[in-house]
Amino acid sequence: MAGDSVEAAGERFRQAAQQGTLHNLQSAEFAVPDIAASDLVRWAYDNGMVNTRDGRAVYEQLLAAPPEERCPLCGHGVVRTLDHFLPKMMFPALCVDPLNLVPACADCNHVKGESHPTDAETTPLHPYLDRIDQDPWLEARVADSNPAWLDFFFSPPPGWKQILIDRTRHHFELFGLARLFAVQANRTVNNIRQQLTAMLNAGGKDLVRAYLVEEAETRLADRLNGWEGVTYRALARDDDFCSGAFAA
Ligand SMILES: [Zn+2]
Fold it and tell me: Which one of 100, 110, 159, 185 has the fewest CB atoms closer than 10 angstroms to its CB?
């Protein structure tokens, strides 16, 4: 019903998210009265937002997120904005709902734009609702050693439901994570090439590998699916790379 309270809209949003049916939500059910866009936030507060438990505090906390925080959509970019998970043009009643405000880097915000989920399989992962980082899902292998180029890919952990596998794969492709991570990995190798060459000369491939393994373990302990740790792990596993292909 048009003009429904923000609270009711938020409730419908949460229920659909929980049931995996965000793609079925109808824009018409999230309409607001005919008011100027500049008044939308105030309207939302007046119609339930301030009554939503902890709503305002969460919103302000989100806006005050430290600038160095990583974008949860790509796991790499610097947070620049709050992205509307369901676009505010179609779902204005959710425009200040904390669960619909996702910190994002400029690139991911741009990629997502005003798009909205149209089916279950292509619904992007929601950073607060779809927590996937307790399982290892990011893998990489060395495609080229010099210039360094790694193929990053999504490797579904055992036990995952098919829908989560489909959504993660779609998310990975939508935000161009394979290329983003490969570019970063290339820079990383450029930064350590001299160091690796010195190690190779001093102690051979075993020394190079031991160094890469240690760097991988430190980083993976911090972020299981971070591109940094996955990069070092992939380099360590590649015999040609450790044997000096990086210097060729
Ligand atoms: Zn991002």
Answer: 159
Integer Cα distance of 200 and 217 in angstroms:
20
126 lies in some domain: no
pTM of the model: 0.86
CA–CA separation, 88 vs 159, rounded Å? 35
Q: Does residue 93 share a domain with residue 148?
A: no
Note whether residue 131 is domain-resident: no
Burial of 66 (0-12, 13-18, 19+ CB in 10 A): exposed
pLDDT tens for each residue of 24-51: 999 888 888 776 666 666 666 666 554 4
Q: Which two tokens stand for residue 220?
A: 């993976």
**Residue 51 Cα, ligand 1 centroid: separation in angstroms?**
31
Nearest 5°: phi and psi at 140?
Answer: -150, 155
* Residue 2 binned pLDDT confidence (cut-offs 50, 70, 90): very low
Boundary of a domain, candidates 116, 149, 183: 116
Residue-number span of the structural domain to which 48 is assigned: 6-116
